[in-house]
Amino acid sequence: MKNMNNEILVIDDELQIRKLLQITLESHGYNILQAATAKEGLVLASQKNPDLILLDLGLPDQNGHLTLRNLREWSSTPLIILSVQDKEEDIIRALDNGANDYLVKPFRTGELLARIRTALRDVNREENNQVVSYKDFELDLGSQILKVNGNLVPLTQTQYALLVLFTRYEGRVMTHQFILREIWGDQFLDQLQYLRVFVAQLRKKIHQDKPGTTHISTVSGIGYRFVGQE
After folding, report:
1. What would be the CATH architecture of the domain defined by 7-119?
2. Where is pLDDT greater, at 144 or 139?
């Protein structure tokens, strides 16, 4: 992250929403850039390279989903959708197109701030010889070793690949199709039960002594979210 207050680009055509977000976010130490159209937002994103983008889907000059795709052609900046569109297909489409998260308007300020903090974490960890550590388990990405409370826990190659994917995108909602494509390929996109079996196996592996808890939360009808610290 930059050695300054994080800069957030708000792309939303509603002046009241932009003002509300400006007041809220600046009071928590963020610097705010504003754009009322997709064109303005894309220009600011390329010129200013913000730390995070808040994107509305109902823009006057271009559909927000297309704007998201345009951004993801060249930018990996964390991005959260803020939209009145609450249909499951819109949420899945946005997440599949590269959004880190999705909040439906009206949203609670506390929840937005929490999602921003999560999205600003470095989710693209390098995998070479790095240990990803949490309170109750650690994953050595170099040697592919999982330790739960200090004890070695064996993983199959698929279980390891799935856990690496979850830790890499910590805090981000990943759709079923995104996970299936990343781990097994396009030919398995309809194998939802297959994914559920592996997620259940992985949960047992990383919570051997605490079966009632989980780092892997189910987002009903959409996918999963990995939370490192419970």
Report:
1. 3-Layer(aba) Sandwich (3.40)
2. 139
